[in-house]
Amino acid sequence: MKVSIITEGLENIGHGHITRCLSLYEAFAERNIYPTIYVNGDKHAQLLLTNCRYKTIDWLTHPAKLIAYINNSDIIIVDSYLAGKEYYNNFIKLSRHSLFVDDNLRLDYPEGNILNGTINSENFPYKKTNNNFLLGAKYIPVRKEFWNIPQRKFNKNIQSILITFGGQDIRNLTPDILKNMIDLYPDVIKNVVVGSGFKCVDKIKKLDNRNVVFHYSPDAVKMKELMISSDVAITAAGQTLYELAVTGTPTIAVAVVENQLNNIREWKKKGFLLDAIQHNDRFYLRKINEHLSKMINISTRKKLSIIGRDNVDGQGPRRVVSYLIDKTCHESGFYFRKAVETDSDQVYKLSNDPSVRQNSINTRPIELEDHQNWFADKILDDNYVFYLVFDKKDNFIGQIRFELSIDSAVTSISISGEFRGKGLSKKIIQTGCSKIFSEHHQIKKIIAYIRPENHVSINSFTSSGFVLESDELINGHIFLKYFLNRT
Q1: Are residues 286 and 356 in the same domain?
Q2: For residue 125, how far is the Cα from the chain centroid?
Q3: Element (H, E) at 115
Q4: pLDDT by residue (tens digit) across 220-237?
Q5: N or C terminus: fewer CB in 10 A for the chain?
Q6: Helix (H) and strand (E) counts in the chain
Q7: With contact defined as beta carbons under 8 Å apart, do 450 and 471 qualify?
Q8: pLDDT tens-digit profile of 16-50?
Q9: DSSP letter assigned to residue 309
């Protein structure tokens, strides 16, 4: 399955899009599907993406370059504030399924799937169209570290405050908020997140004291620890707000850009936030203090925590990916993905199935060590395309493989016992060959060698368009050579 994720992360707009896209990447990776993220991004964006497959590309300026990468995708996901409608119109032509991440009804999107995980977005006034909608905080993409959160423990008094304004703090609010907390709560621990894009680091460092702890560009694991261990958080009203909700962290949120204000208002309606605060309100520090004074009461903090966790359970990325895989499987009943190292055992079991062995070129049982060496080589071989086939519940249907040469490919297929006789072989052959022809333009012909007595396989290949070319002697046995030409 080819999944392409298109997004941006730049100094003037922040990196919340990347965080969301990473969570979807991780949910695909959990199912051994590895997308590529195409990011119009800066150095900080690249730091966030170090553990995944990505390409940095200014796709707004060079759309043709992006199109060359993402063409023939099974799924395209777009999370952008910068792309105009013409980009979306082009994207839907390049894949079987599209998902557009939205926050505030930014565009009239073309036909596809629209994801809006904003709190209460199920009540937003979307137009009735042919689009499918995934709406509400049950679908919010949060990073995998936040998918399973333990119960929170509450201190009677506020002992620690988390101050976090993302990787950049585009309004430079951290120094003033930190100073305010030092003045009002000198004995409380202040955990301060300092991102790699901060412009006010020197000013922040001057506020260092024994109860201030700086955390420089913490990863998701550390952020989760900070949220769980802090009694209260002060934050911007973007993606981090949902991670604070899922950890049940009582929160004071400040809108640092216009489109965050609606997010705060919706959370206020739910009761997770006490009120809306804007960065350009000259009384914003006073309002933060007023909110914090109300949170001194442990019962208030418990109430806010419960509301946050009731609205965000952390399973949004898994729900979104399951939905997309279901859509992919809807027509054919299966999806393809490339074989990975952890697939070795199930491929070994299928390959040693007696009916598979008797129809193979080599009919002898395969030794485990031989298989392990062979499998490790093949999944790394650029001239060997190794697809596994699954249903929407990730039950293993079978495998189809292609060994590529200069202008042709040799294919073989095997189906797990419980899926035989269901007419899947023909569909799998057609899908696999179509992918080879579309992704490997040098391949002009695909060849299959079949034993004359294997009538089931002959029927599957001929009904898929393969034509008998000749007989061929292989390892002392006659095989029928079938071929399919590129059309």
Answers
A1: no
A2: 27
A3: strand 113-116
A4: 999 999 999 999 999 999
A5: C
A6: 17, 19
A7: no
A8: 889 899 999 999 999 999 999 999 998 888 888 98
A9: H
One-letter amino acid identity for 218? P
Question: Quick one: pLDDT band at residue 356, thresholds 50, 70, 90?
Answer: very high
Structurally, the chain folds into a number of domains equal to: 3
- Identify whether 372 is part of a domain: yes
Dihedral sign of CA atoms 57, 237, 81, 323 in order: positive
**Residue 48's CATH number:** 3.40.50.11190
pLDDT digits (tens, 9 = 90+) for 50-84: 889 999 999 999 999 999 999 999 999 999 999 99
Backbone region of residue 223 per phi and psi (left: phi > 0; alpha: psi in -120 to 50; beta: other values): alpha
Token reading at 355: 């009916």
Residue whose tokens read 């070994």? 348
Quote the pTM value: 0.88
Which residues span the domain enclosing 448? 333-485
Q: With the C-alpha atoms ordered 202, 204, 206, 212, is the resulting torsion angle positive or negative? A: negative
Q: Is the pLDDT reported for residue 167 higher than 90?
A: no
| 8 A C-beta contact, residue 481 and residue 470 | yes
Spatial contact of 30 and 111, defined as CB atoms under 8 Å apart: no
- For the chain, how far is it from start to end, CA to CA, in angstroms? 23
Flag whether pLDDT at 247 surpasses 90.
yes
Beta strand pairing status for 3-9 and 189-194? unpaired
pLDDT band (50, 70, 90) for residue 239: confident
Task: Tell me how far apart the alpha carbons of residues 147 and 143 are, in angstroms, rounded to a whole number.
Answer: 7
CA distance to 11, 318, 433, per residue, from 397 (Å) = 46, 22, 17
For residue 79, is it within any domain? yes
Q: Is residue 428 part of a domain?
A: yes
